[in-house]
Amino acid sequence: MAAGSARIVRYILFAFFFIAVLYFISHSSPQGLPLTPDNFGVGKGSSSSGLGKTEGAPSGEKESTGFGSTGIESSSSAGTSKEDIPGSKQSTKGKGSSSYGDIKDSTAHGDLAEAPMALTPADAGWDNLLGTAPGPRMNATFVSLARNSDVWDIARSIRQVEDRFNRRYNYDWVFLNDKPFDAQFKRVTTSLVSGKTFYGEIPHEHWSFPDFIDQDKAKKVREDMAQRKIIYGDSVSYRHMCRFESGFFFQQPLMLNYEWYWRVEPSIELFCDIHYDPFRFMAENKKKYSFVLSLYEYVETIPTLWDSVKKFMKNHPEHIVEGNSMGFLSDDGGDTYNHCHFWSNFEVGNLNWLRSKAYTDFFEALDKDGGFFYERWGDAPVHSIAAGLMLKKEEIHFFNDIAYYHVPFTHCPTGEKTRIDLGCHCNPKDNFDWKGYSCTARYFELNGLEKPEGYENQQD
Ligand SMILES: *[C@@H]1O[C@H](CO)[C@@H](O)[C@H](O)[C@H]1NC(C)=O
Ligand SMILES: [Mg+2]
């Protein structure tokens, strides 16, 4: 008797277990369960089907209710294998274009309106951080200037950008270097980026002294700055970098394929989840340039920059826009520069603006004056002054909800509710926004924005 009922109990338990296993298998999403080699990354880099693209499988998009379904597969359906792209130096548009197949349609304003973005916790879809994000994709890429020796520092940056944002969007990533990228750099970065990766070598004329520069004069400046211990004051390559970021990154063949860029440097950190697509936010809200940190430039590096800017304003009044942000840059209506600038190691911006006649004329005028070499002009004040004078002030956006660190400054959103909603891991005490050396309060005042609750407690 006892033995018989024990057997029945065993049968029943076994049946339950069996049903539970069946249920588990049939209800798991593609990124959840199937224990196939693909999901473990086995065969990554050796077969074009095992590149971790399973996230994009349309069957995993059940949770996208409430959003238009257009464009969901746009980043995954192309099926372009990643390993055939690295090393291709010229435009890969031919290969990449199929993945943009429906961008033209889906970025048309009608469709955007049909698939609204969840911008606050009150909006539908806000909490959905799993799987591929619904909605259209912009014509956009990440861009990183890096050396082969930066591989582990850029890897850290990529990992954070992917975890906090891009794993759900799979945007492309362009890497630029004045030397050829080596195989390890390509392997590591391609393994981390969920979108397609492209590697470009910067042409010599974009990373060298233009012929109108007097080498002796430039050398004396570097020696003098070295003595005065001005940061990077004696560096030639830092100057090439600043000039490249000021005038040439957006002209590289690989960058011509895109309208929007997001600049990512080695060793940055992102502290909060990004619940919506910043590229799409920029496009829908007619923004052209954005920032998360602003501060005063080190005067010794730009003593005559504003003189060049004033000369440009006089020669090109047609490029100076009404309703601009002169009030951010100058306290006396443009007579002198207050040294405020947006910190350009983070930027989400519009490439077509940088490629416009206005910006091109601006860069060329500054370049001819020689300050990239006779002083040490940074790309941050150059971009900022351009945005400040040649964009309407509403076209410059402050991304409060993108929490960011680049040595030595942190932007950590003000207000505990925001930080909790966004799952932030930054220390609010580190937030630079309202400190004396930040220009962000000035930006808020100029644009009539209300400062977030609690900012007064973060002023020192
Ligand atoms: C993306 O933008 C670039 C630059 O404006 C343009 O040449 C290209 O045709 C665009 N691609 C798509 C698919 O719209
Ligand atoms: Mg840096």
Automatic annotation (TrEMBL):
Q: Which GO terms describe its biological process?
A: cell wall mannoprotein biosynthetic process; protein N-linked glycosylation; protein O-linked glycosylation
Compositional bias of kind Low complexity: 87-99
Q: Name one GO molecular function term.
A: alpha-1,2-mannosyltransferase activity
The residue ranges flagged as biased composition, category Polar residues, are 71-80
Q: Which UniProt keywords apply?
A: Glycosyltransferase, Membrane, Transferase, Transmembrane, Transmembrane helix
Membrane-spanning ranges? 7-25
Stretch list, region Disordered: 44-106
Q: Which GO terms describe its cellular component?
A: Golgi apparatus; membrane
Q: Tell me the PANTHER family matching this sequence.
A: ALPHA-1,2 MANNOSYLTRANSFERASE KTR1
Question: Member of which family?
Answer: Belongs to the glycosyltransferase 15 family.
Q: What's the protein name? A: Alpha-mannosyltransferase
